[in-house]
Automatic annotation (TrEMBL):
Gene3D superfamilies: Periplasmic binding protein-like II. GO terms for molecular function: phosphate ion binding. Residues 1-20 form the signal peptide. It is a lipid-anchor. Pfam families: PBP_like_2 (PF12849). This is Phosphate-binding protein. It is found in: Cell membrane. It comes from Psychrobacillus soli.
């Protein structure tokens, strides 16, 4: 699942994220003392210890969770490796719900989520003695897509989405939405039930009703992308970044006349499918594992730029500053 890399390469300019690991460039004071073998160079002056070496951190960090958040985190992990090469960060993609299961079991330091944590998940964490902190990383517009070969669907209302996606015992056809559209059976692709994207769609579109039983479900958004690419009668929904990475073969459907883009997602005009993206961090790991604290600090310092690079919408700068202030208090 590396489709984000191609978009990342075209949108990042000069890898401006190689920030703060370079240290202080100021000259070292010279002294009149005779240098020792450890400090003497060929010229007889003290040898500087590079600040980057002094700041080097070793350790491991583990996370899991949302496939929607994964492009941001995977890109951050790759960039972070150039700053702290001795820190091993591993990130799984089990979906938001699956990620929380591992977080509750104490298997991970952080959990990516494309929806807020549920009350029952909070209770399970409390029972397990795990304190956590929520950090928002970016905003997303859950995007409804059809194939570029679909030349009839341009715009759907929320009621149209309900009629299409809610199971009612009938075979859904495009002509059920508009009699001028083909009398062809609709082919559905959906994130799996462990996905926060599914949960969000369930909340704002399905209203707790069953999803169309004929739908193909997958926790891997690329499976959904490929399904729609291959069938002009297919429809799917997933994070905005996956649409952008495949916009040559997919068409984003307007919802109530509003298309998903950075402006409509940030403003909330793209409603009700605009949503926040989160990472949940284990407090004890932040205080006990310097590698994890450093990775989270790097994440919050760079999440805005990286979110935009992979196709999501960054938060206002002050939101990241608030996150960094909260993080500092957990050290």
């Amino acid at each position: 699942m590396k489709s984000w890399k191609y978009l990342l390469m075209t949108t990042m300019v000069g890898s401006a994220l190689a920030l703060a690991a370079c240290g202080d460039d100021s000259d070292t004071e010279t002294t009149e003392e005779t240098p020792t073998e450890e400090t003497a160079g060929e010229t007889g002056t003290e040898t500087e210890t590079p600040a980057a070496e002094e700041a080097a951190i070793e350790g491991s960090v583990s996370g899991d969770g949302s496939s929607t958040v994964a492009p941001i985190t995977e890109a951050l992990v790759e960039e972070y490796a150039g700053v702290q090469g001795k820190v091993q960060v591993t990130v799984g993609v089990s979906g938001t719900g699956g990620g929380f299961e591992k977080f509750i079991a104490g298997e991970t330091d952080f959990s990516n989520a494309s929806r807020p944590i549920k009350d029952e998940e909070k209770a399970a964490l409390a029972d397990a003695g795990i304190d956590f902190t929520e950090f928002q990383l970016a905003n997303d517009g859950l995007t409804v897509v059809v194939s570029q070969e679909n030349d009839w669907v341009e715009d759907l209302t929320v009621e149209d989405l309900k009629k299409l996606w809610i199971e009612d015992g009938t075979t859904k056809k495009w002509s059920d939405i508009n009699p001028e559209w083909p009398a062809e059976e609709v082919v559905f692709y959906s994130p799996g039930t462990d996905s926060g994207t599914y949960d969000y769609f369930d909340e704002v579109i399905l209203d707790g009703e069953d999803l169309a039983k004929s739908a193909t479900l997958s926790e891997d958004d690329n499976v959904l992308v490929q399904g729609v690419q291959a069938d002009k009668n297919a429809i799917a929904f997933f994070g905005y970044a996956y649409y952008l990475a495949n916009q040559d073969t997919l068409k984003a459907v307007k919802i109530g006349g509003v298309e998903p883009n950075n402006e409509t997602i940030e403003s909330g005009e793209y409603s009700p499918l605009s949503r926040p993206l989160f990472v949940y961090a284990k407090n004890s790991a932040l205080s006990e594992n310097p590698a994890f604290y450093d990775f989270m600090k790097y994440t919050l310092e760079n999440a805005g730029e990286m979110a935009e690079a992979v196709g999501y919408v960054s938060l206002p700068a002050e939101k990241y500053e608030e996150g960094l202030s909260t993080l500092e208090g957990l050290k």
